[in-house]
Amino acid sequence: MTLSQVVSVAGNAGNYTVKVRRSPRYVDMDKCIACGLCAEKCPRPVADEFNEGVNNRKAIYIKYGQSVPLKYAIDPNACIYLTRGKCRACEKFCPTGAINFEDKAEIVELKVGAVVLAPGYQPYDPSGEDYYGYDSIADVVTSLEYERLLSASGPCMGHLMRPSDNREPKRIAWLQCVGSRNTNRCSNGYCSSVCCMYAVKQALVTAEHTHGDELSQTIFFMDLRSHGKEFERYYEDAKAKGVRFIRARPHTIDPLRGGSGVRMRYTTEDGRQMEEDFDLAVLSVGMEATQDNKALAGIFDFSLDSYGFAQTAASNPVRVNDGVFVAGALHAPKAIPHAVTEASAAANEAARLLSEAKGALAVEKTYPDERDVTQEEPRVGVFVCSCGINIAGVIDVNAVVEYAKGLDHVAFVENNLFTCSADTQVLIRQKAEEMNLNRIVVAACTPRTHEPLFQETLKEAGLNAYLVEMANIRNQNSWVHQKEPEKATEKAKDQVRMAVVKAVRNKALTRLKVDVNQKALVIGGGVAGMTSALSLAEQGFPVVLLEREDRLGGNASHVSATDFGDSVPPMLKDMIKKVEGHPDIAVHTNARLKTAVGSVGNFVSKFETHGETRAVTYGAAVIATGAKESIPDEYGFGSDPRIHTHLSFDKLMQAEVSTVQKADTVAFIQCVGSRDSRRPYCSRICCTHTMKAAVKLKTLNRAMQVVVFYRDIRTYGLREELYRKARELGVLFVRYSPDDKPQVRTTPEGVMVRGLDPISRFTLEIEADYLVLAAAVEPHGNEELVELYKCGANADGFLNEAHPKLRPVDMSVDGLFVAGLCNYPKPMDEAISQAQAAAARAAVVLSRKEMLLDAIKSYVTEHCDGCALCVDVCPYRAIRLQESTGEDGRMHRMVQVDPALCKGCGVCAATCPKDGVRVHGFTKEQIKAQVASALESLSGGRA
Amino acid sequence: MKQEFEPFIIGFLCNWCAYAGGDLAGVSRLQYPANMRAIRVMCSGMVSPDMVSDALLQGADGVLVMG
């Protein structure tokens, strides 16, 4: 339901009636074919809000090329007919009669059991802030405007131009924290969490969209916050590539004479006044709560914080009310991985609430009957994608199209701006029908991400899904040969030709169904593991929970309160009680996984518990093995009892609060073992941990001197409040650089910490009663699990997700999911939502009694004589030798493949001397045809 | 002008690692010469010796099996 808004809700969790007001679209969605003629003829231009008003759209429009549903709509505030009663041009030109000016708003009543709210955020609007000059200077743009300027589908088609004179800017500056961490000119005291990284990304991506080598990118920042997984490396890479980072907040931006470019004035840390000209200034605007939050809070009865974000409890970070769940920026600014994780977490909570009704309304998608193409001559349709400018910016797609037309068996060729868009899928179906195509080749991006989409399209067109073949002319061509357009075009032609010869040899394949073992294994009994286990058990899936220690709880047993002040011990106690008492959860402590065989839907493992070996069968597993505080090997740690880590100091504060509060001075050193060559990542939680401890100390004893030595304070999101509170309470912050770390020596009087204050340029020495080291978070050895499951970990040893943004809790091995600190350091609320998300994703596997296997499996041919060479080489033990007595009374030997175990690796096929075993979709004949086709160009072009 | 020899290479790329690596190289915009033609296979173990010799006999200057 688009153009719709919630008006009211009645009922309670499990049984709501939601009234929704659907505004008129004035276009009949069934009739509109999104041909765009209406927009072409519409005489009324309107600033295009999707492109941040950089260009115009029409009063009848689609928001952007990949909109779902891809149907036009009339903007009633701009339409000449709807505002002034005359025009109806669109109606005249629409070829399908889809325009309906009689369309009226309607109230729709929905019966639902749970509600997920995800209204998103709105960007901060810097209008009216004179010192940024956003209103008056053409070449000051917001980061979202800049994002559109860079985009291939944006107003300048990805050819970067600045607004004042449409020329390519060379010197570009980003200003961080515009509308964030600011209570002076606006009231957004929080950090928006994402702007540092998007600025770094924009700075790096800019280099791809500009010509020549005079480009210079400068980022003005306060603290650079690269606290996400792999973010610190990205930041370091940007520095290495020449992006300039200046720790300053420019205080004045003036237009340059002539109307183009800006002059910026700023003060460096050591007090020098600087003046510098830039061609373009980008304001890294922060995230704000949407205007709708208040209305939603009223309708669904939950509270908002002073910024307008929804308030949730750490124990269930996506719940605002009994049956009402939230995801994304509604309850705090956050980056995509976290928002996507929360979306799954919210779905999990809804599924838990409604588990009894699960599947009651499910309808199976049906496809037209599959056409048998075995007797048909191959007729190949080739679709060449431009991918905006991603492909067409390097490869001459028209030349590729013309070339493909001349290939054997090719019956139809077309170029698309985005072959993956919804409208192109309709087009492929239409063309397959019209032109009687029986093979499709898509020359676009990688089959690893997009083949399933096109397989679906073939099924909808009544063709077997395996009759599609992709030519990867983006990831493995245009993106990697950016400076060689001619060679790239030649390569693309070869790739298309190779895909066509393979497609011609593709056969219809069927996928096998296997039973799913509807039980789960959860590895790790910390908060994340327990959350996943409870979520799954409450949805009716039996769970085996393995914990390496002798008790449940993990790191949470050392934590007294969450970042937002919720008390942890009672929450943890309650959680452990629920887990231990749940009839569907079997807890094994002192447990260690020993083996893992099988695949999604059917895993078998052995584990050791209290010296005994046991077996477990399961359909999916959640890995939540946690992480630990590292042991510092610097700043005198271990040599003096007054030198602590966070966890040992927390313990001391609990046990001997009266002693600690008498301290005159407590010093903290940040990034101990993080962000260095050994652990080149940010441990994400230590800055906030220090703030919590510092605020607590200052609350215990206002006279106490608390000094924090830091590199960048990374109290992201609403955690910034703690940082502000610490400063208000008088905590001193002294920045140090990794080349000039604080010096620590111990004396009987105190722990002496010496450091250079970069602002006053004075070296200061502090005599501290306690020194607290913010030690890095490091993973427990995940090597064993990686080895057992053949799953992935990053260079730092944290378990990897299948895709950091799109699949943040799936692992690369199907049926495995990841949650908590073993994936990356994170605070408890994030670990909980990730665990809820992992449970939701695991439940997707476990809810089905049977599942479809991929069809790429090996099969035995009539040439097999039972020599059994393949049996030994099969790494999955999927092949067995079968002996039978024939009618002639003689013994026949042949091998047999178990398709549930076979992964289609084809080692058998490469070993077989007689072509007795092949892999579907990758037969020797197909591969050799591709080889021959690849080398075809040699005979013609090169002797 | 003397033309520099540029080999023409057939690459067999395992779907799960080398081919994924090739995709990642694209995402990371790592630039490399355009003289290899990649053939996606489900495992480098699928590449039989005769596929390699076939490629060489038909004129390939080199064969890369990556997995």
UniProtKB/TrEMBL annotation, chain A:
Domain 4Fe-4S ferredoxin-type: 23-53, 70-104, 855-884, 893-922
Membrane-spanning residues: none
Entry keyword annotation includes Kinase: no
Protein keywords: 4Fe-4S, FAD, Flavoprotein, Iron, Iron-sulfur, Metal-binding, Oxidoreductase
Stretches assigned to coiled coil: none
Cofactor(s), by name: FAD
Molecular function terms, GO-annotated: 4 iron, 4 sulfur cluster binding; metal ion binding; oxidoreductase activity
Protein family: Belongs to the HdrA family.
Full protein name: Heterodisulfide reductase subunit A
Species: Desulfatibacillum alkenivorans DSM 16219
Automatic annotation (TrEMBL), chain B:
Single GO MF descriptor: iron-sulfur cluster binding
InterPro entries: MvhD/FlpD
UniProt keyword list: Iron, Iron-sulfur, Metal-binding, Oxidoreductase
Stretches assigned to the F420-non-reducing hydrogenase iron-sulfur subunit D domain: 9-67
Keyword Oxidoreductase: yes
Pfam families on file: FlpD (PF02662)
Domain of life: Bacteria
Keyword Glycoprotein: no
Name of the protein in question: Methyl-viologen-reducing hydrogenase, delta subunit
Organism this protein belongs to: Desulfatibacillum alkenivorans DSM 16219
